[in-house]
Amino acid sequence: MKVKLILPALTEAGSPFWRPIKYSLFPPLGLATLAAYFASDDELQLVDQHVEKLRLDDCPDLVLIELYITNAKRGYAIAAAYRAKGVHVALGGLHVTALPDEAQLFGDTIFLGPAEQTFPQFLRDFRRGVPQKRYVSTTGRTLDGLPPLRRDLIRRHRYLVPNSLVISRGCPHHCDFCYKDAFFRDGKSFYTQRVDAIIREIAALPGRHLYFLDDHLLGDPGLARELFREMRGMGRVFQGAATVASILHGDLIEAAAAAGLRSLFVGFETFSPENLRQSNKNQNLQQDYRAAVRRLHDLGIMINGSFVFGLDHDDQDVFQRTVDWGVDNAITTATYHILTPYPGTRLYERMAAAGRLTTADWELYDTRHAVFTPARMTAAELEAGCWRAYREFYRWRNIWTAARTHSSWQHQLKHFFYTAGWKKFEPVWTAVVNLGGLRYALPLVELLLAEVKTAPGRHWEKLEMAEPVKRRHSGRSRADAK
Ligand code: B12
Ligand code: SF4
After folding, report:
1. Number of domains present in the structure of the chain
2. pLDDT at residue 461 tops 80
3. Both 351 and 230 in a single domain?
């Protein structure tokens, strides 16, 4: 059987939002997971439209398409092209699960939720000629005994981070704006692989660098502790994501650093307790964000802070305040999102009931556009503020100010080159991607993630000596002052 697995581009190549390096980071792990269920004599082709051209002039027996919200339109068009030739098209992923009735119009078969348990049944039905229209994941979710991902189908050299992996599904928390509860409805919403399987997967990956794409790498403390113990001595450097609370409590983060954790994506999201409460992000309530930052920096771990703008208690000041906090606390990189009510979430239902949604053009649900009416500013002000925050945070002056806060010169240089490298050399990255040179960039990433010696506390002392952020805000903002 000939099978084509497709990840349609999340953003149209050539649009102002198209950043070749951003879309050449990670290979499509979901599709590589599904590919593992086919027989050895099936002929498989995995196409990621972010890094290669998608041809539609072939005629496979089966096409599988992964749909996120912003690639849904492109995915439906691809599905229509193949269905017109009589090819059976199956659709799955986050968007299909959120809006199954919409997706059903474009696919012969659709999958709701994670597919590890339902996909094998579909394959049996398909081979017998009786595929169903809809497969819904409910009971029996597990990652135990999964066949190994078909990494051989991934064109490693086209990605900056070919060694990305995901060792869990979901997350133990329930934030109102998150995809998670809708996607894992009707069954377990957080479960992990076993440590021995994870170690086997890691051992098979070449080089030193790893990127865990899990929503919350420290979400199961028992598993994380055992994993980090096993990883010590493997010589790996890795990146991942975790919550503020998990950094502050216990000594798991020290174990992670000893195993090679060098950079962490942290969901700070908002400084307002009202916003946190309204979003059901209770795990961030009453957590000392600055103490979390200090702890990470003392361990030599760089921070990618995630922040959301447009929550109901945000006013026009939120942008500059958030940028200043990031610079003052020497956050390495910042990701600023405009609040986005994804279909299927509690946030979406609330916004819809209040008549606040302003568009159903899913391509705009990319956290760069305001797709709802904000409470304390206009949609245009929200979008402009978000872009302003990016520009401000990544000004040379701010990059240098933040880098200098670290206690050792190695940490300062590392911060400076990591941040500048990510945002200040876009044309260079584009040239590297276009010339097929990403494979040569990985050693550079590994160098930037090398261990640095820190003098615990010094970074914190510098922050304590700095003029308190609040006071500075009562007058002019950092931008106005310059
Ligand atoms: C990697 C990644 C990306 C990559 C995407 C390319 C890629 N390689 O996948 C990049 C970096 C480009 C990216 C960008 C963005 N991302 Co992203 N990303 C992820 C991440 C971290 C991992 C995806 C992954 O590999 N998951 C693991 C695999 C195993 O799961 P899976 O892909 O869902 O596949 C399973 C099922 O869905 C199903 N399945 C999937 N496809 C199909 C198809 C068929 C036929 C079948 C049968 C089954 C099936 O089977 C698989 C096994 O169960 C997820 C977080 C997460 N935990 O998923 C966020 C996530 C998907 N991203 C998210 C967001 C918000 C974004 C951005 C909008 C953020 C931003 N502002 O930059 C942008 C998109 C910009 C745009 N214009 O759209 C949100 C999505 C929210 C939502 N409701 O849609 C997530 C969930 C993160 C989060 N916790 O909020 N992202
Ligand atoms: S902590 Fe992150 S992944 Fe978990 S529910 Fe909240 S937003 Fe989603």
Report:
1. 2
2. no
3. yes
Cβ neighbours of 369 (radius 10 Å): 19
Q: What is the pLDDT of residues 10-46, one digit of tens each?
A: 998 878 888 888 999 999 999 999 999 999 999 999 9
In order of 15, 48, 52, 418, 442, the CA distances from 20 in angstroms are: 11, 13, 11, 18, 16
Q: What is the pLDDT of residues 110-155, one digit of tens each?
A: 999 999 999 999 999 999 999 999 999 998 999 999 999 999 999 9
Is 23's C-beta closer than 6 angstroms to any atom of ligand 1?
Answer: yes
* Pair (365, 414) in one structural domain: yes
- Ligand 2 neighbourhood includes 208 CB (under 6 angstroms): no
| Same domain? 98 vs 225 | no
> In angstroms, rounded to a whole number, what is the distance separating the alpha carbons of residues 180 and 99?
14
Query: Which among 291, 224, 290 is positioned nearest to 261, based on CA atoms?
Result: 224
Rounded to whole angstroms, the Cα distance separating 208 from 145 reads 26
| Domain closes at, from 121, 136, 151 | 136
Q: Can you give the CATH number for the domain in which 464 is found?
A: 3.20.20.70
Residue type, 152: D
Atom nearest to 177 CA in ligand 2: 7
Same domain, 102 and 215: no
Q: Which ligand is nearest to the CA of 340?
A: 1
The CA-atom distances, in angstroms, between 219 and each of 200, 250, 305 are 21, 13, 18
Query: Quick check: 480 pLDDT over 90?
Result: no
DSSP 438: G
- Alpha-carbon distance values, 367 to 363, 440, 474 (Å): 10, 31, 29
pLDDT in tens, 417-434: 999 988 888 889 999 998
Find the CATH number of the domain harbouring 124.
3.40.50.280
Map tokens 């003029």 to a residue. 467
Ligand 1, atom 74, lies closest to the CA of 366
Give me ligand 1 centre to Cα 68, in Å: 7
Nearest to 350 by CA among 315, 311, 377, 307: 311
Between the CA of 216 and the centroid of ligand 2 the distance, in Å, is 8
Phi, psi of 309 (to 5 degrees): -110, 145
